[in-house]
Known about the structure:
about 220 residues, alpha/beta
Amino acid sequence: MHIHPLLLGHRGARAEKSIPENTLASFDLALAQGCDGFEFDVRLAEDGQAVICHDAEIRGLKIAETSGEKLALPVLREVLTRYQETAFFDIELKVAGLETITAELLRKFRPARGFVVSSFLPEVLRSMHGFDATIPLGLICETRAQLEHWPQLPVEYVIPHHALARQSLISEIKGAGKKVFVWTVNLPADMKRFSKWGVDGIISDDPKLLANTLASPSRKQIAGT
């Protein structure tokens, strides 16, 4: 039986240039446009705050050397509490040092619709697993070299870049009992192809296009598209 993939906005609704990515407004829009949830990036501020930002610097400030208050970015607690009942989360940890705070927040605000804590960094995933083995983890891969690590890691999800996502790879990962998310998928033909191949989730910069391409009629009606 074909399972419908989760539809996830990349950094919220990244294609919408009038709204900054990785913000509450961007996450709101991804859900309003018909997605099941969204992917977002977490970094560590100087004072130990888990802040939402993709790049290591913002407005000329180095995140690792600046307090959360001065950065004025959304924080992980805020995102988890706001969308605890309404969104699936793909929480990408960009750096080491976030494992404890992430595990503690997820214990307090367990997302009702599911989540994965993902990273490019194998050491972060191993460390996270050591803090809480119940947290579902995902390895993000952009290269074949990164992809080679997944069988040795304590992950439930493998998250390859769309250029790596062959049907044989998806079959291999799913055959091992893991789930597959593909990123960043911005063309309708690719969305349909990955859905047909049975991926568990598709991450796109354009939540509206993703939902219009793959959502069932009832979901489109709910989203008002």
